[in-house]
Amino acid sequence: MVTSVTGTGTSATATSRTSLVSNFDTFLQLLTAQLQNQNPLDPLDTNQFTQQLVQFAGVEQQLRQNESLESLVSISKAQRNTDALNFVGQTVTAAGDTTQLQDGLAVWYVTSPKPAQANVTITNSAGSVVYAGTHTLETGTQPYQWNGKTSTGTIAPAGTYKIAINAVDTAGQKVTTSTNFSGVVDSVDVSGDQPVLMIGATLINIDQVRSVVRTGTGTTTGTGNNNTNNTGNTGTNGTSGSS
């Protein structure tokens, strides 16, 4: 969906300009009245008038600069929002720990700097734990697949799920991992200050995107620091989150 983006800056500048014009007209009227009624033997100081005129000119110039900047910002926002629309229908891999369970499969891409043993916890949108188990991580990026089977043996409904990984190496030292997820962009919300991509019920910012796969071509385009090498192969390789 596309919503026009407007701000209060332009309105504020217009109000300031109207106020400036009004004050400037008043100033000229007072100046004219003073010049007409000044004492010829004790004329008014023209330096003061000159300084005030310069101040008015400086303020007007600043307002013009503000208008130009606001125009550039508006153009930039419009271009950014237009560019964001190109993500619709594309498969993106983004930094994050939340993904969708669809057709009995949810996939995350986990990056580990070294081999590790991980305790994996998956929670639903309400924050309740639906699955907990262990998983062996290898060095690098690997897909972690969950088939929707909960710890009690039931099948979780389709929806948004979040993964948490607590990993340690062979010496028992904590290993810091990172998680990406992949999905098709359904829509783009441009009603805020920044465009937001919507993958199912998951919202992500543009700067979270790590790679983009053009639908129907398999061509991957990197958009950031991407350690994921399996984008586009969701569901073909990896380890199920439950047995």
Number of strands: 15
Q: How many structural domains in the coordinates?
A: 2
With strands numbered from the N-terminus, the spatial order across the biggest sheet is 14-13-1-9-3-6-15
Largest sheet: 7 strands, mixed
Order of helices and strands: HHEEEEEEEEEEEEEEE
Helix content: 25-40%
The shape is elongated
Could you tell me how far the N terminus lies from the C terminus, measured between alpha carbons in angstroms?
A: 40 Å
Task: Average the pLDDT over all residues and give the rounded result.
Answer: 78
Radius of gyration: 30 Å
CATH class of the largest domain: Mainly Beta
Tell me the β content. 25-35%
Uncertain ranges: 1-8, 224-240
The computed structural class is alpha+beta
CATH architecture of the largest domain: Sandwich
By CATH, the topology of the largest domain is Immunoglobulin-like
Number of helices: 2
